[in-house]
Amino acid sequence: MKRYQFDYSRDIHHIAVVGLGGTGSQLARSIARLLFDMRERRLQTPELMFIDPDVVEYKNVGRQMFTVADIGGNKAEILATRFNKALGLDILSLVRPFSPNAVASHLHTTLLVGCVDNPIARRQMAAAKILWLDTGNHYDTGQVILGNAYDVETVQIAMKKANGTSIITALPSPALVFPSLLEPDEPKPALSDLSCADLVQRGEQHLYINEFVALAASQYIYRLLHRQSISSHMSYVSADTGMIKPVLITSEIVA
Fold first, then answer.
1. Cβ-based neighbours of 165, under 8 Å, separated by 6 or more
2. CB atoms within 10 A of CB 3
3. pLDDT tens readout for residues 53-104
């Protein structure tokens, strides 16, 4: 079983974080810190945009990166303003649902980071057909998956080109690996319409699972921005054990 290293062949000039809730607000802070550190080291730093139409509610306070004073404000605007003032950054905000048009002018230089819990938003992200890092979670487990290929043929071509080397330039996208991400969830009595914040409040979601998932996602973003090869296609997370388990990129996994 052959092991591969994923080497994204393009520089990333734009990062779009979609969803600034439980995982998204934690990950937004990590990315802002990363860009500040890169700028201090005089490295090229990409443009960062937060995208979310939602406003802060009381249930978000303490469970997401928001305070009581933030209630009623837009999540993307609040976090962009906060990190811009704290770190001297120029983060942009978009206060409407994501659509491929948001990144249409720079498709090949954008990293799309998904932190949403609904299939409608994920279908829009899949439609953009760009480098996509998706996050998701259940009660005390979660997953992070990275990919840039949206059909089997593209993956097969990448594997053939990688023959004789350990470098692969295309990985199956989250939508290709887990098509169920784009499908509506089966209704669950009393829980089907609840957000992550609602589930935490009811004890149906671990308080720290979003932070574990954000930490796992941060590692992928760090390596991508520093042009370091990536050896795992996805990572599974457990808040119960405190473990992040990477899934190595192998010929079997990619196939």
1. none
2. 12
3. 999 999 999 889 999 999 999 999 999 999 999 999 999 999 999 999 999 9
- The owner of tokens 């090949």 is 108
Collapsing DSSP states into helix, strand and coil, what is residue 118? coil
- Reduce the secondary structure of 147-192 to three states and give it as a string: ECECCHHHHHHHHHHCCCCCEECCCECHHHHCHHHHCCCCCCCCCC
136: left (phi over 0), alpha (psi -120 to 50) or beta: beta
Phi, psi for 103 (deg, rounded to 5): -125, 10
Distance separating alpha carbons of residues 64 and 211, to the nearest angstrom: 10
Domains in the chain and their CATH numbers?
Answer: 11-148+173-232 (3.40.50.720)
| Dihedral, CA of residue 111, residue 117, residue 119 and residue 124, to nearest 10 | -30
Distances in whole angstroms, Cα of residue 206 to Cα of each of 60, 114, 240: 14, 20, 9
Q: Do the beta carbons of residue 98 and residue 51 sit within 8 Å?
A: yes
Question: How many residues are present in the chain?
Answer: 255
pTM: predicted TM-score of the whole model, two decimal places: 0.91
Give the span between the Cα atoms of 168 and 184, in whole angstroms. Answer: 32
State both tokens at 245: 């388990």
Which DSSP letter does residue 143 get?
Answer: E
Enter the DSSP assignment of 64.
B
Residue 252 CB coordination number (10 Å) = 9
Closest CA to 29 of 57, 48, 54, 2: 48
* Rounded distance between C-alpha atoms, residue 55 and residue 69, angstroms: 12
Closest CA to 139 of 207, 195, 87: 207
